[in-house]
Write a structure and sequence with these properties.
With about 120 residues, this protein is an alpha+beta fold. It has a single domain, classed as 2,3-Dihydroxybiphenyl 1,2-Dioxygenase, domain 1. About 20% of the residues lie in helices and about 45% in strands. It has 2 helices and 8 strands. It has helices spanning about 15-25, 75-85, and strands spanning about 1-10, 25-30, 40-45, 45-55, 65-70, 90-95, 100-105, 110-115. Strands 2-3-4-1-5-8-7-6 form an 8-stranded mixed beta sheet, covered by helices on one side. Strand 3 (about 40-45) and strand 4 (about 45-55) form a beta hairpin. It is globular, with a radius of gyration of 15 Å. The chain starts with a strand and ends with a strand. The model has no long low-confidence stretch (mean pLDDT about 90).
Length: about 120
């Protein structure tokens, strides 16, 4: 298991993008056709910051942080553990890549995303 990326919602997307690119030396790169509009910022060739447009102010503290994502390869194991603990989850497939995603919420309303390789 390893950390994959962070997602930030913003009603000032261009300013956030420019700051992260300038201060952290991230690069704008390819992004699947998700809605709403956004950017993926890459570090060392990997999309580590996902920016997503929103119409309202996400807040002045951590209200802009949407979720934390991990990569794993035990898709069935995670789903089994979630079901065993009666944790509700949702699944989706990334457009154009087939990457499987599982989302669930833990204590304090922290959303977790775990990404898995495409189905065999």
């Amino acid at each position: 298991m390893k950390l994959d990326h962070m997602t930030i919602h913003s009603n000032n997307l261009e300013a956030v993008k420019e700051s992260l690119m300038r201060l952290l030396l991230l690069e704008d790169g390819p992004r699947p056709a998700f809605e709403p509009y956004g950017y993926w910022l890459y570090g060392e060739g990997y999309p580590i910051v996902h920016l997503t447009a929103m119409d309202t102010n996400p807040g002045d503290s951590t209200g802009a942080l949407d979720h934390v994502s991990f990569k794993d390869d035990d898709y069935d194991g995670l789903k089994s553990r979630l079901q065993q603990d009666a944790v509700e989850y949702r699944e989706q497939v990334v457009p154009g890549t087939g990457v499987r995603q599982v989302f669930f919420i833990i204590q304090h309303q922290v959303e977790i995303e775990v990404d898995f390789p495409p189905a065999p």
